[in-house]
Amino acid sequence: MKRRLLLSSSAAAAAAAGLPCAFAQPAAWPVRPIRLLVPFPAAGATDLFARGLAQKLAERLGVSIVVENRPGAGGSIGADAAAKAAPDGYTLMLTTSSTHAIGPAINPRLPYDTVRDFTPIVHAGNAPSIMLVPNDSPARTVQQWIDHAKRNPGRLNYGSSGNGTIVQLTAELFKSQAGIFVTHIPYKGTALAMPDLMSGKLDVVFDSLPTGLPFVRDGRLRALGVTSLKRTPLAPDLPPIADTLPGYVSNTWFGVYGPRGLPAEVVARVNAAANQVLADADTRERFARLGIEAVGSTPAQFAQMVADDAAKWKKIIVERRIVGD
User: Fold this and answer.
1) Whole-angstrom Cα distance, residue 276 to residue 279?
2) What single DSSP character describes residue 117?
3) Distance between terminal CA atoms of the chain?
4) Which residues pair with 93 in a beta bridge?
5) Strand 251-259 to strand 118-133: parallel, antiparallel, or no bridges (unpaired)?
């Protein structure tokens, strides 16, 4: 009994003096709900993906995960909140290429540094786009469309969801690699561009798979290819544009970050749980219905992918003098 009291007194004295205590054990993580910030509005593809991932992660980590939407300024408001959160493992962020690959090149005055202020955890998914043309287009393949554009320099156009968006960048990357001149016509979302594409007022649109593919299935538009590097199970019948333009790839990626200084053991726990979730067949099917292919990675692989993607888009943005709306 005396020994027990002595040990308790020693621990209390060490704590009072601010000294490390050999008898104190660090609290297990996680012991309370985790907040998953999503820097985009509710009900969109990113939000639905985040909620599906959060549900499965919560089951594996043993605590609830609350999705909190912080939209605005192209995702930078939510990303800034995540960057400034305490690195205790109770605030994570699910974001896309717009905040960490495209945003810094479009807006160099962001309130955060995409490398310094975040801890990469896992590359969760990719959403490729689809190259759509009118049914009366003379092109039935990517190469035929490129040849058509070269025969008509400056006479063809493409629609996008706005200046500085992934839709515009995808088209500009295509133009750069194909060596063609095609005029940009921005819309406030690709949904507004679809009637003009179907009527032939537009010559091509690079749209997301979930919104673009139904037009193809209904026979209202023709699809020439996908922007993934290889064939995607999301649209297995479509060839990748990279078969014609080697190395061509444009994905909206989804990934999980924590704030800078996130403990390595927390990163490892979340990464392991996320990779297990992303390998689950039912989960992959659920995400596929959103037009997102589950990926999975190590933190280092995720960081390298983002660095490569950011360098690619910065080059296009600078060369093409692209500015945001």
Assistant:
1) 5
2) T
3) 72
4) 37, 257
5) antiparallel
